[in-house]
Write a structure and sequence with these properties.
heterodimer, A: alpha+beta, four-stranded antiparallel β-sheet, 10 helices, 4 strands, about 5% strand, flat, B: alpha/beta, seven-stranded mixed β-sheet, 7 helices
């Protein structure tokens, strides 16, 4: 949208959808502003509260309203962060729907693609512009939003209403590189679905439906995307470790999980306790595994995106030469 | 022989749910002609144009445009689709701007503006009338300065006056730049007078192809007694009492002692062929594809 040397088809795509793009940008700005405002409010309230002589832990007479007012601002900020996380989870589906519907499905449905292809724009070039424009905007926009969401999460952590640990699905999927990966993957899937269905509304609906299993499968396999660390001893790893599994380690060094005891049948707890000369262990992801896990997951999403894009060009070439 | 604007060899297109829309088409359209592509509804005219424009991949055979593949020739030809699918949310001015953006090498704003004429520049395409949309679509096509202009039922939603005007501007542009034009129509006579070349498509096949004059001259409308018209090939024959009227493809001179011979009108000729699907195809030498198709029959 700036004066950088954009070439014809991309400029036309941006011009045609400028209102949707501006609206999306404005919506993102409003969301960011709301979270920042809630944070500013909470941190100013926190300063005032510190000077008031009251404390949350020891309620003394006369402090009730002050404490309640302070906690309210923190709760409000924390809720804002919650909504921001939810928005981050929905964002990839929205990107996919935009590409599947208005950008591609509607053109094929209304026949307006004929107007583009009648100019000096090949079908492949037409599709490339419809992928490149949202991809660049997604890459830039979602990266910024993801960093912002991580910042907001870390701020909420210091309040009386922290928003859960880094490995929880709603948190993990709202920061790091994963949101960018999901958004780009949905963009490519949306393009492919739009090309195959050639109907705007149907393509948008199917794209949303495709997002659900994608998220579910990756949520399920996430813990296996990077080798876990092992913690020995009866106690569990502390801090913000993501506990994946635990069991007993025999003297010979064999790891026995509850499901291995009695082959999973019978009283596994008693079986585990009955193991001789065994020490307890826990497999977990320390917080330092955040980035390796995120990058592997993003890599998988990008490979999926590349496959969808390759398939989309193939479909186009097959049908339209 | 001049270069070919379009050359099809064994061209066929099969749709998944409708079967063959076009089959075994071989013909040649020399450059610089204004060609009428006629035929009834569903004859395969739109399919043929879409194949030439490079929107569809042929199921069999090949079509070459301006000496190369349709994809390679994309920037040198323009196509106006039957329903004029312009972007409805763009204004007239924005549509022309998009034309300039999407045809950076060839765009001529003056031509586009001239054809667009009095169209309100800030009106959205979705608010334009059918005739106005046709005008804008033609402005977009001619602004591209194409060597080959493919028009699918271009004048269908125009009133006679607007049709006359637009056809006039079209012909003027074509004459000035020696543009080859292919115009399809199911109204057989709509294009008479404007076109010097003829392609009759019927049932997915090319039935007639060549210079309109030559095709007309190759036929004769015979009136006379009921008897065999040999050696001439009968396209269509009717008898009323003792009188026979036959449209024949001439083989040698007509025996004027027996027959009263007249040159048929274009409409008579086309209708006779449409009513007689078994009449053999006729392609004049200039309309015959070099690499020989099955339907090729020189005069």
């Amino acid at each position: 949208m700036s004066a950088i040397a954009l070439r014809g088809p991309e400029r036309v795509v941006i011009y045609q959808h400028r209102r949707a793009l501006w609206s999306a940008g404005a919506l993102a700005l409003v969301g960011v502003a709301a979270v920042v405002a809630a944070w500013l409010w909470a941190s100013s309230a926190s300063g005032t509260f510190a000077g008031s002589g009251c404390s949350v832990e020891n309620t003394v007479r006369g402090c009730g309203d002050t404490v309640r007012a302070f906690l309210d601002t923190e709760l409000r900020f924390s809720q804002a962060v919650d909504y921001a996380g939810l928005a981050m989870m929905i964002l990839p589906a929205c990107v996919g729907m935009f590409v599947a519907g208005p950008l591609i499905g509607r053109e094929l449905e209304n026949g307006t693609y004929i107007t583009s292809w009648s100019q000096s724009v090949s079908p492949a070039r037409w599709l490339a512009a419809r992928l490149a424009v949202p991809a660049v905007l997604t890459l830039a926009g979602v990266s910024v939003l993801s960093a912002f969401s991580a910042w907001a999460w870390s701020r909420a952590k210091g309040t009386y209403y922290p928003r859960g640990d880094w490995y929880e699905r709603e948190i993990y999927g709202a920061m790091g590189s994963a949101p960018v990966g999901y958004a780009l993957c949905m963009l490519a899937l949306g393009a492919l679905i739009g090309l195959l269905l050639r109907r705007a509304v149907a393509a948008m609906a199917v794209t949303v439906l495709a997002y659900v299993p994608l998220v579910m499968v990756l949520n399920r396999v996430r813990e296996d995307l990077w080798p876990t660390a092992r913690f020995l001893g009866g106690d569990r790893p502390g801090g913000d470790a993501w506990l994946v599994d635990s069991g007993m380690l025999t003297a010979s060094g064999k790891a026995i999980y509850p499901k291995d005891c009695f082959g999973g049948a019978g009283d596994t707890a008693a079986c585990m306790r009955g193991l001789k000369e065994a020490t307890g262990f826990a497999d977990y992801h320390p917080a330092s595994h955040f980035w390796p896990l995120q990058l592997v997951e993003t890599g998988i999403l990008l490979v999926l995106a590349a496959l969808a894009v390759a398939l989309a060009f193939r479909v186009l070439r097959r049908r339209h030469g | 022989m001049t270069g070919a604007a379009i050359e099809a060899t064994g061209l066929g297109m099969k749709y998944r749910n409708r079967g063959w829309a076009l089959r075994d088409c071989s013909f040649r359209l020399p450059a610089g002609r204004v060609c009428a592509l006629v035929g009834p509804n569903g004859a395969g005219k739109s399919t043929l144009l879409a194949l030439a424009a490079g929107f569809l991949r042929p199921s069999e055979g090949a079509v070459r445009v301006l000496g190369t593949t349709p994809g390679q020739a994309r920037s040198r030809m323009a196509f106006v689709a039957q329903d004029k699918p312009l972007y409805p949310q763009l204004t007239v001015a924005a549509t022309l701007w998009a034309g300039a953006e999407l045809n950076p090498a060839t765009w001529d704003q003056d031509t586009a503006e001239r054809i667009a004429g009095e169209l309100p520049r800030d009106a959205r395409v979705r608010d334009l009338s059918g005739g106005q949309r046709t005008r804008l679509a033609l402005a977009l096509a001619l602004g591209k300065r194409p060597e080959l202009l493919l028009l699918d039922e271009p004048m269908a939603d125009l009133d006679p006056l607007a049709r006359h005007q637009l056809m006039g501007s079209l012909m003027a542009e074509a004459a000035e730049h020696a543009t080859t034009i292919v115009m399809s129509s199911h109204i057989l006579t709509e294009l008479e007078g404007a076109c010097d070349y003829l392609l009759l498509v019927d049932g997915g096949r090319v039935r007639l192809g060549g210079e309109a004059e030559d095709i007309l001259a190759a036929h004769a409308l015979l009136t006379g007694p009921v008897r065999d018209t040999a050696p001439h090939t009968v396209v269509e024959s009717r008898t009323a009492g003792r009188l026979q009227t036959a449209l024949v493809r001439r083989q040698g001179p007509v025996d004027t002692a027996v027959w009263e011979a007249a040159e048929p009108s274009l409409e008579e000729l086309l209708l006779a062929h449409l009513r007689s699907p078994e009449a053999p195809a006729l392609l004049t030498p200039s309309a015959t594809a070099a690499e020989g198709g099955k339907e090729v029959a020189a005069v």
